[in-house]
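Consider today's protein:

***
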Amino acid sequence: MIENTQRDLNIALINELAIIFNKMGIDTEAMLKKRIQVMGARVLVIGLTFKENCPDLRNTRVVDVVAELQDYGVTVDVHDPWVDADEAEREYKIRPVSNPEAGSYDGIILAVAHDQFRTMTAKSIRQLGATTHVLYDIKAVCKPEESDLRL
């Protein structure tokens, strides 16, 4: 009975995540197709600022993506070389990582198109992901065929 309840809760959670992500324009079915469990997944969000090549955190909507993921049991790391880590933690309770751990993320979300990220190859970005991972390219940094999803 406990296993059935857990399974039912996981299914309901995935359905709710799909609804939320669809409203945000993010296709969760890509993670499910690769058999990546969303709850408990580890995701790297690349970029936190309001716009590219600028340290300004005011009005950034990336924090909403981070919060939604965290609300559903996803461990989220944020990487943004433009951000003052103390300010991000003070304003949004997000402590950016300076060096994301290669090979450890189930999902990677390119959220801000800083020049540093535009000059990276999709292959080098994907090296941050686990063997099986999904690359969401929200800002069209990569070529369409190099990412799993893009807006």
In short: The mean pLDDT is 84. The beta strands are 42-46, 75-79, 105-110, 129-137, 149-150. The CA atoms of residues 78 and 124 lie 17 Å apart. The chain has six helices and five strands.
